[in-house]
Amino acid sequence: MTALPEFEFHTSSACKYNNNDPRCVEVARNVPGTVAVRNSATGQMVEFTAGEWTDFLTGAKLGEFDVATA
Predict the structure, then answer these.
(1) What is the pTM of this model?
(2) Between the CA of residue 25 and those of 1, 2, 4, 70, what are the distances in Å?
(3) How far apart are alpha carbons 7 and 34 in whole angstroms?
């Protein structure tokens, strides 16, 4: 049986953690080839390959995921 990876999550320095509203995104990059992202409030986690994560960050920096406000 293969052991599951032990992710070491870190919260972004941009997170404004508030005990009354503890919603932050946490990222773990300590498992080779994998990036795990979780919601600090719910613990729900999603895993990406290193390539997928790089593509996501590139798109985010280019504004690909910006939400238009009316």
Answers:
(1) 0.74
(2) 31, 28, 21, 26
(3) 10
Question: 29-65 pLDDT, tens per residue?
Answer: 999 999 999 988 888 999 999 999 999 999 999 999 8
The answer to whether the CB of 35 falls within 8 A of the CB of 28 is: yes
What is the longest distance spanned by two Cα atoms in the chain? 53
Q: What local confidence, expressed as pLDDT, does residue 70 receive?
A: 60
Q: Please enumerate in sequence order all residues whose Cβ is within 8 A of that of 54, keeping only pairs 6 or more positions apart, or say none.
A: none
Phi and psi at 53, nearest 5°, equal -65, -40
Q: Report d(CA 50, CA 63) in Å as an integer.
A: 20
**Alpha carbon distance 64, 62 (integer Å):** 6
